[in-house]
Amino acid sequence: xxxxxxxxxxxxxxxxxxxxxxxxxxxxxxxxxxxxxxxxxxxxxxxxxxxxxxxxxxxxxxxxxxxxxxxxxxxxxxxxxxxxxxxxxxxxxxxxxxxxxxxxxxxxxxxxxxxxxxxxxxxxxxxxxxxxxxxxxxxxxxxxxxxxxxxxxxxxxxxxxxxxxxxxxxxxxxxxxxxxxxxxxxxxxxxxxxxxxxxxxxxxxxxxxxxxxxxxxxxxxxxxxxxxxxxxxxxxxxxxxxxxxxxxxxxxxxxxxxxxxxxxxxxxxxxxxxxxxxxxxxxxxxxxxxxxxxxxxxxxxxxxxxxxxxxxxxxxxxxxxxxxx
Length: 325
Prior knowledge:
Layout: H1 27-32, E1 37-39, H2 45-51, E2 58-63, H3 68-83, E3 89-94, H4 99-104, E4 112-117, E5 120-126, H5 131-142, H6 148-165, H7 169-182, H8 187-199, H9 203-211, H10 215-218, H11 221-236, H12 242-251, H13 256-269, H14 272-285, H15 293-305, H16 310-323
């Protein structure tokens, strides 16, 4: 499903006001501008290395023009530093022109690379080592690489969820739509957008959107849960008047069929605790009713609510107490 055939694009038209953009100027571009790789001198060493290393790790490459292994190392370490995308800086020092710093550090052989963190040397290596070992060295100093784009998408999804839970459905939809522009098959964003459609009463559009998904996406937990939620809403619409069902239960508290229907209705109304209590009461009075239908329905609720939802946690405790008492 590409961006051009994204079924969610424009679903809310101009009603959406929230937006998000992904990806800024790559850090590798900064390297081309000299921000990540530079030459230093004895006079500028404190600024270029000691002070800079308080912000991010700095690798100092001690070299000389006559050094053959230095010439082998230079293109490799510069390539790896650029690929590290800002996790480290590389500062090069010609020891023929500026021998004092290398002497203070006790460097007797070049090439030598010393890593500075927090204004202090913390690790290093000597010789023209392979690219893979340089990458391992940087990972050890700066930590493993972080997928910034993934982290950014996750942050936008979290913001969208918070907006939705606060009742700002339109802006939540805007953020979900922004994610889908960048990642058209992001299951969490699709599920969030469909949930926004449901909240706005666009049930037919929600069903159509789900029907257009590739089979593999339909198998994800997020899509499975929102699909089941839509099923529950559509079923509840056919179960009758909740006031009438309440009346039937007042006359006959053991009318489990009426109670099961009322539980399904209360669930889609948002009364999760009430829905769970109705099902638990059926289980307490008649576990065999419709082949343990109440327990099966409660588990279906949990799937839609999610394992961390307070209603799920509370109902699970009551369920365990009922089953193992």
